[in-house]
Design goal:
There is one protein chain. By secondary structure, the protein is α/β, with parallel strands linked by helices. The chain contains 27 helices and 21 strands. It has a six-stranded parallel beta sheet with strand order 7-6-8-9-5-10. Strands 11-12-21-20-13-19 form a six-stranded parallel beta sheet, sandwiched between helices. The two termini are about 40 Å apart.
Length: about 675
């Protein structure tokens, strides 16, 4: 019997004893729910199920799920689903979800048998209603800001240039969808041209409307900054008068929505965002709560373009919203006709090339087995509902063509195999323990602690950085302003040639240990002494881990420590204009050494050569999406270090996050009231 059980001697609850922080939080929540149930007069059975349900759903949300299948909870305790439902609804701490938000009890059991924390049920319901409202507003528009198909065709030719070949250009398909609709979800891997597509779309819209108000945003400060830099880098291809009207700044989603005096977001349904176009990058990082707030704040006529990669890691918080929304494109006949006319394509040829349900990857089909189908309407008794278009029809497009590494390259073939869950095929692409450098390699190292051979091979990856650092320190005398910082730009380039990506932070194969080992090797190779304590030394790369708006530093920013004109260390960061800015180490927000990064922190980055360090045994942090995200950070070479069985199992394990978003959307499509 756990500690929790002893607090209620008259009720056997059978909740596991806490083993970590999330478990302790779940146990505390279970205590509160059982106490509330008792106070409300629930039976011993009702109190027992209230505690069990509270514990289970709290743990599930901490692991990224939005809800828990009631059947799963019933099976865990060898009970019937109906008995569990009835006991919960009679416990005075659970409601059936029919109530408005303010009347929901702490737990919700929906009619399909999903168990929620009330706030997550409300997030999902609000998101669904806002999605449907935006889609219906889009379909009600007679004329889009993008103009007629003929007008779109002219603008596409002007800002995308002539087609490169006779293949269907999905960037242009995405552009037509964005120009003729209010919601466009673009999923594509690294190098598929998402930023190029957005620049072209914005140019077309600015050409059509001079006073267009545009906002760029992303879930993290670093992602927002990278998006701004990428957009401005491509702005040179536009006429100067259009390039000058592109947005000159970008926001985190929190800054976009604003914070009011009560701590709530300033922009919401009654005070929508004042933009005509909003572009969100790295949308796969958006959790269900943020998605609900974002869609709540959209004005009816706002174009929303969401960019991401459905196969990458999902949000750290609960939900995999982007993966669910982009899991399978669907098109109405009317929109196919518009796209064909705008691109001057044969409509039958375009229709034959559109993705079908059979084209969805294994990951798409397995990702959310409990969530239903967002792309076809469920059966309904009314003919009107039967004839309604699917809620996300004409909203989703996949970019498959890769301009960074061809899909027939080793990295391309490896990424495709991983996306499909073809573990053995992925292993066949990797060269096992190669004697010479190759594009995709696997190094067997299955011991708990990495072998000395592995450490030496990883250290060799940073040899060019150590050489560049040694030369920079020797060539830049301390009296020269800004001293060694004059060579910092070259050091950034050297650093980005190689990076270690870890699945975990702790342990002998985690980020902390890898950073410690690599820092020691680089210091020895460059003959750099320690300064300011045990961590700081000239050449230490750091990654900021928390936004600091006053300093203009954001989560994910990379800096390099170098001596300034006075010989004291400063941390130099690249600025958006390609220059450098220096910050005192003492003034930095929270940060980590950055020779090694977690795979989560590497999202949106790219390196010439990346190494994925796997744990020695399989753990729940490993997934197909984690491996895919890691290997697609590499432009030219990728290596995987670990046990073969661990890699195969990780590729065979897609992220599955329980969600009821499809059910909530279906309810909204059937006219569920706004709450």
């Amino acid at each position: 019997m756990s500690t929790f059980d002893h607090t209620l001697p008259d009720v056997e609850v059978n909740v596991p004893a806490p083993a970590d922080f999330s478990t302790a939080l779940a146990e505390g929540f279970a205590r509160r729910m059982s106490a509330l149930a008792q106070r409300g007069g629930a039976s011993a059975d009702g109190v027992r199920w209230a505690a069990r349900a509270a514990f289970a759903v709290s743990r599930a949300t901490s692991e990224g799920h939005v809800c828990v299948p009631l059947e799963e909870l019933a099976q865990r305790y060898e009970a019937g689903v109906e008995h569990v439902r009835d006991a919960l609804l009679a416990s005075h701490v659970a409601s059936d979800g029919a109530q408005p938000a303010h009347a929901l009890r702490p737990l919700v059991v929906d009619r399909e048998g999903r168990l929620y924390l009330a706030r997550y049920y409300d997030y999902e319901r609000r998101l669904a209603q806002s999605l449907v409202a935006h889609a219906q507003a889009m379909r009600g528009d007679q004329v889009s800001d993008g103009g007629s198909p003929h007008g779109m065709s002219e603008r596409l030719l002007r800002y995308f240039g002539p087609p490169q070949d006779d293949q269907i250009d999905w960037q242009r398909v995405a552009a037509v969808m964005a120009l003729s609709g209010r919601l466009t979800i673009v999923s594509g891997g690294p190098g598929t041209g998402k930023t190029t597509t957005v620049v072209g779309v914005l140019a077309c819209l600015l050409d059509a409307r001079a006073d267009l108000r545009i906002a760029l945003a992303a879930p993290t400060g670093k992602a927002a900054q990278r998006m701004q830099e990428a957009l401005l880098a491509r702005a040179g291809s536009l006429p100067p008068e259009l390039a000058a009207r592109l947005p000159q700044t970008s926001f985190t989603l929190h800054r976009l929505l604003g914070t009011g005096p009560d701590g709530r977001f300033r922009h919401h349904r009654d005070n929508p965002l004042p933009y005509d176009v909003i572009v969100i990058d790295e949308a796969s990082m958006i959790d269900v709560a943020m998605a609900a707030h974002l869609f709540d704040a959209l004005a009816r006529d706002t174009h929303l373009v969401m960019l991401g990669d459905k196969d990458q890691l999902a949000a750290v918080e609960a939900g995999a919203v982007f993966a669910e929304l982009s899991a399978q494109p669907a098109f109405t006949g009317e929109r196919v006709g518009v796209i064909a006319a705008a691109l001057k394509l044969d409509e039958h040829r375009l229709r034959a090339a559109l993705p079908t349900a059979a084209a969805a990857s294994t990951a798409d089909q397995e990702r959310a087995p409990f969530s239903g189908d967002l792309f076809s309407m469920p059966p309904d008794e009314t003919p009107q509902a039967q004839s309604q278009p699917a809620p996300l029809a004409d909203c989703v497009v996949w970019l498959e063509r890769n301009y960074r590494f061809g899909l027939d390259s080793a990295i391309g073939r490896l990424s495709l195999a991983i996306r499909r869950g073809a573990a053995q095929q992925a292993l066949e692409v990797l060269v096992i323990d190669p004697c010479a450098p190759c594009a995709a390699a696997f190094h067997e190292d299955s011991e708990a602690v990495p072998s000395e051979r592995t450490i030496q091979r990883l250290a060799a990856g940073f040899a060019p950085y150590a050489q560049a650092l040694s030369k920079a320190l020797a060539d830049a005398p301390a009296e020269a302003a800004p001293g060694a910082a004059a060579h910092a730009l070259g050091l950034f380039d050297a650093l980005n040639r190689f990076r270690i990506l870890c699945a975990t932070r702790l342990g002998p194969r985690g980020v902390d240990q890898m950073n410690s080992a690599m820092a020691a090797h680089v210091r020895r190779a460059a003959r750099v002494p320690l300064a300011m304590g045990a961590q700081w030394f000239a050449g230490r790369p750091v990654m900021v881990t928390r936004n600091d708006y006053a300093l203009g530093l954001f989560n994910g920013d990379i800096g390099i420590a170098l001596p300034g004109a006075d010989g004291a260390l400063r941390v130099y960061f690249r600025s958006a204009d390609g220059g450098l800015r220096a910050v005192s180490p003492a003034a930095l927000p929270p940060h980590d050494t950055a020779f090694a990064l977690t795979v989560h922190k590497s999202q949106g980055s790219e390196f010439e050569h990346a190494v994925l360090m796997l744990p020695s045994t399989f753990s729940r942090v490993l997934s197909r999406e984690l491996v895919y995200t890691a290997i697609t950070r590499a432009r030219e070479r990728v290596e995987v270090v670990g046990a073969r069985a661990v890699l195969l199992r990780a590729i065979a394990t897609p992220t599955q996050r329980d969600s009821g978003l499809a059910a909530r959307i279906a309810e909204a499509m059937r006219g569920g009231r706004m709450v």
